[in-house]
C-alpha cells in the first residue's frame, strides 16, 4: 500500500457543529470539504458519515452514496472509509460494513476488531480484505497496540503484505492532547518488530503540528483535520479543513520538509 503523504480527516465520529460550525456532517458538506482540501494539497480523505440525526454510523448505503459523489467531484482523491466503533458498533457490524461495501480503502482500529472472541473469525476477515484488494490501515493507539499488530502478523492473522498503520497520539491522555514524545514508544516497537509498514500519524491539541512534523522527519506521513484538532499553530481557530491543510503544509515548508 502507498498512502498519500497528506490525508485529511474532516469530520470524525464525535465532533459536532457546536465544536465548529464548518464541521462537515452531511454528504454534500463532506464532498465540498473534500474538494477544498484536495485543492489545498491533500492527497487523501479519511471519511466518516453521519445519519439524519448527525450521529456516527456505519451505514453501507450512505457510504456508497458518499463514495460515488467523491469520485465525481474530487477525481483522483484517495478515499478511505472508517469502521470506527465509537462505542456503538460491534466487530461483527464493522466486518459487515466492509464485506458489503468492499471499499478500496478502510481504517480499522486493531483493539476494536480484535474484540471478536473467535480469533479465527478475525483471521478470515483480514484474509477476505487481502483477497478483495481492500487496503487496510490499522489504527494503533499506543506501543502495546503496535506489539499486538506485530504478533498478529507473525502468527498469520494479519497479512504482512501492504501493511499500513496510523499511530494515533494522545487519544487516551488527559484532556486528549498530544506531544511529539508520544511517538517514541510506538515507533521504537515498530522499528524493532522487523515490519516495514506504510505509516502515518494523527494527533490532538495545540501540539498537533509539532507531532506531525516529528512523524514526517522520521519517515512517516501525516493526517490532519477537524476530527482531531481545529486550531492552527498560531493559536487561531481554522475557518475550514482546507485551512488546516495549508497550515500543515506551511509548517512543513518552514521545517524544510516536503508534503
- Average pLDDT reading: 96
Alpha carbon gyration radius: 17 Å
- Going by CATH, the homologous superfamily would be Aldolase class I
CATH architecture descriptor: Alpha-Beta Barrel
Describe the oligomeric state of these chains in a short phrase. Answer: single chain
Can you tell me about this structure?
The chain has nine helices and ten strands. It has helices spanning 27-40, 60-73, 91-101, 110-113, 119-132, 143-154, 184-193, 208-217, 241-254, and strands at 6-8, 44-47, 49-50, 56-57, 78-82, 105-109, 135-140, 164-169, 198-203, 221-224. The strands form two sheets. The protein has an eight-stranded parallel β-barrel, surrounded by five helices. The chain has a two-stranded antiparallel sheet with strand order 3-4. The longest helix has 14 residues, at 27-40. It is an enzyme of class 2 (transferase). Its EC number is 2.3.1.247.
Keywords for this structure?
alpha/beta; TIM Barrel; 259 residues; 10 strands
Topology:
Blueprint: E1 6-8, H1 27-40, E2 44-47, E3 49-50, E4 56-57, H2 60-73, E5 78-82, H3 91-101, E6 105-109, H4 110-113, H5 119-132, E7 135-140, H6 143-154, E8 164-169, H7 184-193, E9 198-203, H8 208-217, E10 221-224, H9 241-254
Parallel strand pairs: 1-2, 1-10, 2-5, 5-6, 6-7, 7-8, 8-9, 9-10
Antiparallel strand pairs: 3-4
Helix pairs in contact: 1-2, 1-9, 2-3, 6-7
